[in-house]
Design brief:
The chain contains 2 helices and 4 strands, in the order E-H-E-E-H-E. It is an alpha+beta fold. It starts with a strand and ends in a 12-residue tail after the last strand. This is AsnC family transcriptional regulator.
Length: about 80
């Protein structure tokens, strides 16, 4: 399962949070972004509850204010269709 997670964080904590997120084995990509959200996280996990566990971990992080999770739909484009 793959998912994109949008994250709002405490002002000034973006760089530290991104560094921490890059250490998670499920993380494929993480970027700071401008706009409504501060960080875009792409994850992949074989565990059916993996995305939920990561979101719980994020929501308990002291620098994370809010998250928004979008699960990838297989068969609707992107590189995931070739797996």
């Amino acid at each position: 399962m793959q998912a994109y997670i949008l994250i709002n964080c405490q002002t000034g904590s973006e760089t530290r949070l991104i560094s921490e997120l890059m250490e998670l084995p499920e993380v494929i990509e993480v970027n700071g972004v401008w706009g409504k959200y501060d960080v875009l996280l792409k994850i992949s996990t074989n565990d059916p509850n993996g995305a939920e566990q990561i979101v719980k971990q994020l929501r308990n992080h002291p620098d994370v204010v809010d998250t928004y999770t979008m699960h990838v739909l297989y068969g609707q484009g992107g590189t995931i269709d070739h797996e």
